[in-house]
Amino acid sequence: MEKSFDGFGDFIHGVWFPAVVIILVGDGSAISLVASLVLVMSGAIRLSYFENVGLTADARFIGIPVSYGTPLLAVLLLLRPLIWTEMFATILALAFTALAFLYVSTFVRVPAIQGRAIPLATIAAIALSLALMAVA
After folding, report:
1. Which of 7, 8, 21, 107 has the fewest CB neighbours in a 10 Å radius?
2. Alpha carbons 83 and 43: distance in angstroms, whole number
3. What pLDDT is stored for residue 99 in this prediction?
4. Alpha-carbon dihedral sign for residues 96, 98, 100, 103
5. Whole-angstrom Cα distance, residue 79 to residue 60?
6. Which helix (H) or strand (E) holds 125?
């Protein structure tokens, strides 16, 4: 049961939240709606696949984990002042459309975050959060 909630949490923070932000930033434009739809569908497929298959024998994910969506969103929002305002919504939508395809790709193998990488990932998440709070 707890594994199901983990997947649900991944869906909310790595798929649904970025999809909503894409629509809000894009003011509901066609590209933002399509990008969000592609993101939600591929995220659901990715999580369903992982739920049934899991990691490879060498502790790798097949395809990009959906948890990579939130850091990508944070980085793009931090870069927003450096991007031409009229292009930001399109760049955001295209970046997440590309990520959505990487979610379900079989040629990408990503090592699971484990061991010493866990505190590094935690520090990176805290740093991105603090940076976002600083610019808000």
Report:
1. 107
2. 27
3. 97
4. negative
5. 30
6. helix 117-135
